[in-house]
Amino acid sequence: MKKKVTIVIPIYNASSHLEKCVESVINQTYQNLEIILVDDGSTDNSGTMCDDFASKDKRIKVIHKDNGGVSSARNYGINISSGDYICFLDSDDYYNHNFVNEMYHEIVKKNADLCYCGYIKVDNGNMKRNKTKFTTKNCLLNYFSGKTKIQTGCFFIKKDLIIDYNLKFEEGVSWGEDYKFFSSIIFYAKRVSYLNNYYLFYNVTDNDNKLSKVNVAMIEKDKKMILDIISDLKLSERDKNMLLYYRLPALLINKIYLLKGKNDLRNLFRENINYINNLKFNNGLRSLKLYFKKYRLEKFLK
């Protein structure tokens, strides 16, 4: 018998996208599903919509909780899940109807701990495949460098991996709230597989709008998350250097750009100058582009 697959969907004021998202899961060709809808304190009618979905499909479980953020909602979903495999889908994104079936058979065939696929960007109705490097070699290095681009909904994970290493989503961060979680998943996975296909539809417009909430405190938490990955995982020198000399400077430079208020920018830049100056040419063209951005930022702050 095919094993159960859990899909966790955190929801906060998502009524405009929720039906398309949930229906993409309900209508999967693979039917042995557990669908967990975590209503994270929505103030629109998302919670009512969730209850309505559950009344029509016995595979759906609905949790209504106080607002704690997307990571809190995902962690809640993990805690109550009963599937052998688990996926996480954001409420403004949606799946190809064959996502679960294809990913399940691939991960079983390869006896892998995780499988990933590519994604299609959806921007105001326009769709474009996001080019990525599909590989099972140096997976963590390619993830850190941004060459292998994997969104949250692209991962298909053996749940035992999460339980065995007690992995949780990092709560209270603004950038890549899933970054430490999936870095750990890739690090601990004994075998990784992938499907060279694009099964996730990623809503670029709505996800990019979330960046407007960035503030100084959140950037500090994001920085700590990167440093925690370095301290908590026994990374190779090459993987560690990619975080220290590219990923962390990139985080700081890109997010400082988004802050309003020149004084905040100056203070944050000065406080993190040592991390920013760690930037090296260890990631090709991406590093070069970041150098130009750093230069423009320095000129702006003079």
Quick overview of this protein structure:
This protein is about 50% helix and about 20% strand.
Folded structure, characterized:
With 302 residues, this protein is α/β, with parallel strands linked by helices. The chain folds into two domains: 5-210, Spore Coat Polysaccharide Biosynthesis Protein SpsA, Chain A; 214-301, no CATH class. The protein is 48% helix and 19% strand. The chain has 13 helices and nine strands. Strands 1, 2, 3, 4, 5, 6, 7, 8 and 9 form a nine-stranded mixed β-sheet that branches. Helix 5 packs parallel to helix 10, helix 7 runs parallel beside helix 9 (216-232) and helix 10 (237-258) packs parallel to helix 13 (284-301). The longest helix has 22 residues, at 237-258. The chain starts with a strand and ends with a helix. The model has no long low-confidence stretch (mean pLDDT 93).
Which helices and strands occur, and which strands form pairs?
Elements: E1 5-11, H1 15-26, E2 33-40, H2 46-56, E3 60-65, H3 70-80, E4 85-88, E5 94-95, H4 99-109, E6 114-123, E7 126-129, H5 139-145, E8 155-158, H6 159-164, H7 179-188, E9 192-203, H8 204-209, H9 216-232, H10 237-258, H11 262-271, H12 273-276, H13 284-301
Parallel strand pairs: 1-2, 1-4, 2-3, 6-9
Antiparallel strand pairs: 4-8, 5-9, 6-7, 6-8
Helix pairs in contact: 5-10, 7-9, 9-10, 10-13
